[in-house]
Amino acid sequence: MPDPTVKDILTSDHHELYDTLVARRYFAKFDRITGHLGRVAAEVEAEGRLTRTEARVLGRYLTAVAGTFRALSHKYLMTGRGESAPRLTIDRHESGFPVAQELMTMAVDAQQAEKHLAGMPSEAELKDRMVRQIVGDLTIPTALQFALSQRYYYEALAAGGLFWARNDPDAQWIRDLGTRRHFLVHWAVWDTQNNLPVVYLMDVEDSGRRPLPTDAYRWPQAQAALMAQSVGGLKLLTIATGFDKDFSDLHPKRLRRIILGPMYSASFTLQSGPISKVLEGAKAPEGEDWALVWTVEDLVSDREEEVKDGWFSTAVRQVYKLDPVAGAELGATRQDRMIILPERPYQVLVEQNPAGLRAYRKFVVGAGGRLVPTL
Question: Where are the domains of the chain?
């Protein structure tokens, strides 16, 4: 039998949004937050920490995250308006995002989207029925409103461009390097352990006979290997060295993991530590009581070495540069954390100046949605 204390803790981390207004406030909050993420990526690019290609690739994932929230907002538009209306489940402890099961269900729904749409009345017909019910019966057309919200949901799924529970690797050619080709391989997952969207960027030099994305033998194996290793608990060093060993003609020169979140909010999450005191002290109005953390883990190859590979052969292996202080524990060259938050919480953050948040790069959302990076 499992320890009931542990079970209770795990259950309390997940919370259903059962009220219509609460659910709509939640999605409105994320609509504002995701609108700022592209600006953060542009600022990081301007600072030279992302290339234009990397920023463009990351931007597509950020847009996909925003699209996923919009699709879910349609699905849960009628939360609390009837027993059959679905409820969104979020992870309110060290996440603030929907639980991974929501994304898995969405992927299953997407497979049936066209079938659902074919069996539904059109948007115009549903709206016409609503008007006739309001005028003729003098009643609120709750069932029709629900049907229209589900139509919007399935239309969003059918349109695509969303962030799924798993977003399989793709490769972007960068340039040729003598006998090698340089690719940016990128993929993303919704981390099932932490309930957060995670993006991976890997710079790979390819010394194979055929370009990696057109190699029918290596590319499917490489994709499968990367997706199998996309677990939040694995260090970047473990992922990169395993890939380096498994593919003798693929040389991972750099691997980055970008973790979007957690999102902290006085209204929706149970936070502890310094961020809790910041949000509590801010007493910000609805829509401004949040903070989003953005973490970038970076692993860079320092050099290559020839190592013995079998009785009579050798192989090229990467030697990665690790953080001089937390190298073994971190498993990366460096880790950078950023925090995005509105002006009111930022002012309290400056006043309190908690030690745990001093190393975070701050991006402040000012009037009119203007993003202001701080030193």
Answer: 4-159, 166-373
Per the CB < 8 A criterion, the answer to whether 88 and 26 are in contact is: yes
Cβ within 8 Å of residue 8, ≥6 positions away: none
pLDDT tens digits, one per residue of 60-77 = 999 999 999 999 999 999
Residue 16's CB is within 10 A of a number of other CB atoms, namely: 13
- Residue 206 burial (CB count, 10 A): 26
CA neighbor of 67 nearest in space, from 57, 59, 79: 59
4 — pLDDT class (breaks 50, 70, 90): very low
pTM over 0.90: yes
In this structure, the number of other CB atoms found within 10 A of the CB of residue 132 comes to 12
Question: For residue range 287-317, what is the model confidence (pLDDT) as tens digits?
Answer: 889 999 999 999 999 999 988 776 767 788 9
Give the percent of the chain with pLDDT over 90: 81
User: Which CA distances in Å does 311 have to 243, 246, 307, 308, 315?
Assistant: 22, 17, 11, 8, 12
Please check the confidence at residue 12 and state whether its pLDDT lies above 70: no
